[in-house]
UniProtKB/TrEMBL annotation:
The gene is rhaA. Its main location: cytoplasm. It comes from Rariglobus hedericola. Belongs to the rhamnose isomerase family. It is found in: Cytoplasm. Catalyzes the interconversion of L-rhamnose and L-rhamnulose. This is L-rhamnose isomerase.
């Protein structure tokens, strides 16, 4: 134990905070690494890439993964530089085994056998996502809310297949998957009819969730969005739509930090959601103007959001995943920066002097609340983070980047 950590532990103790308890919770909370940061959401289905439909990675930094071997090598490299437990967040368009023979509506867990083996060897859980974009049946930008019943049926079957694949991962790995549905459906310009697509989406989701999938192995979630590139005026799967749907049907809600108005406070939503939905999935991300997918920074929005998670008393009902894709910088570094920041923000939240703050608030002493909130910001959380890195045999801040540079020189630069 370093002297810096010993001193930090004592300082936090004065504030009534047990750093060992915070470290134990952090060590028991996995963050789900999104596979799509490694290849700009291209997937393995065709070499041309281009996710399309409101999911756009910008930039042309060399070295992106082009296949299972490269993507898993990159994930292994990334995992070495992130302290504490991880999961994998996988999209359906990353099927590996005999997948060319099956369209998305016919995918099964067998098509992901290599991923099952890979995750099992690492002791990771896997989360899953139907891929409702970058496909001929998504060419007009509508999937589950498409006006064509045949197209809707295709995506319903894909989502059912995905829930079963999630359960397959859950059963094989002994850790339930969260299977999250996001669709790109929407209009660039003002719709004449806002009702009909939402009514169709409700009907499609009812069909998707009517299929029985073992909840011990798979948890469902639905992800809203305010707008996307090319769907600036109307998104079928809006926040209000999915909030209502999740509450009514008691399924999980996915809060993507980049999917709300730029000044909207995501942190404030958590305590309400936990009262009405069984579980929450986070897509930790960073919105910048019209983009929702910048690499996670240790900014106020991220710290506030994960502090609410840390202090919720319901971490067993919360799953933390990440969702960003930046093709303009080294993708390995992007993954590591985002994941370390997510974990740091969670740790900072776990180290908040909650008992003291609630006591003065309850007493109506709101000046003391503000004073304590502000003074607590000077507490040495960085020493606790450094201790977490040491205990997990991971390079602390300021010393992980050379390993990324070496990997870029030795591995990524060979990918032409
Ligand atoms: C690739 C993901 O499913 C996608 O990013 C989705 O989660 C989203 O956030 C779209 O904006
Ligand atoms: Mn998302």
């Amino acid at each position: 134990m370093s002297t810096a950590y010993q001193s930090a532990k004592e300082q936090f103790a004065v504030w009534g905070v047990d750093t060992e308890a915070a470290l134990a919770t952090l060590a028991a909370t996995p963050v789900s690494l999104h596979c799509w940061q490694g290849d700009d959401v291209d997937g393995f289905e065709n070499a041309s890439g281009n996710a399309g439909s409101g999911c756009v990675a910008t930039g042309n930094y060399p070295g992106k993964a082009r296949n299972f071997a490269e993507l898993t090598a990159d994930l292994d490299q990334v995992a070495k530089l992130i302290p504490g437990p991880l999961r994998l967040n996988l999209h359906a368009n990353y099927a590996t085994d005999n997948a060319a023979k099956a369209d998305r509506d016919a995918l099964t867990i067998e098509h992901f056998a290599s991923w099952v083996d890979w995750a099992k060897q690492r002791g990771w859980g896997v989360d899953f996502n139907p891929t409702c974009f970058g496909h001929r049946h998504a060419a007009d930008g509508f999937t589950l809310s498409n006006k064509d019943a045949g197209v809707r049926r295709f995506w319903i079957d894909h989502c059912i297949a995905s829930r079963r694949i999630g359960a397959g991962f859950g059963a094989a790995l002994g850790k339930p998957a969260v299977t999250n549905i996001w669709i790109p459906d929407g209009y660039k310009d003002t719709p004449a009819d806002r009702f009909a697509p939402r009514a169709r989406l409700q009907e499609s989701l009812d069909a998707v969730f009517a299929a029985k999938v073992n909840p011990a192995h798979n948890l469902d979630a639905v992800e809203s969005k305010l707008f996307g590139i090319g769907v600036e005026s109307y998104t079928t799967g809006s926040h209000e739509f999915y909030l209502g749907y999740a509450v009514k049907n008691q399924i999980g809600y996915c809060l993507d930090a980049g999917h709300f108005h730029p000044t909207e406070n995501i942190a404030d939503k958590i305590s309400s959601l936990l009262l009405f939905v069984p579980h929450i999935l986070f897509h930790v991300s960073r919105g910048v103007r019209w983009d929702s997918d910048h690499v996670v920074a240790l900014d106020d929005a991220t710290k506030d959001m994960l502090a609410e998670v840390a202090q919720s008393g319901a971490m067993d009902r919360i799953a933390i995943g990440m969702d960003f894709f930046d093709a303009s910088i080294n993708r390995i570094a992007a993954w590591i920066i985002g994941a370390r920041n997510t974990k740091k923000a969670l740790l900072m939240g776990l180290l908040q002097p909650r008992t003291k703050l609630v006591a003065v608030e309850t007493a109506g002493d709101l000046a003391s609340r503000l004073a304590l909130q502000e003074d607590a910001k000077s507490l040495p959380w960085g020493a606790v983070w450094a201790e977490f890195c040491v205990r997990n045999n991971t390079a602390p801040d300021g010393s992980w980047l050379p390993a990324v540079k070496a990997y870029e020189r030795d591995v990524l630069s060979a990918r032409k």
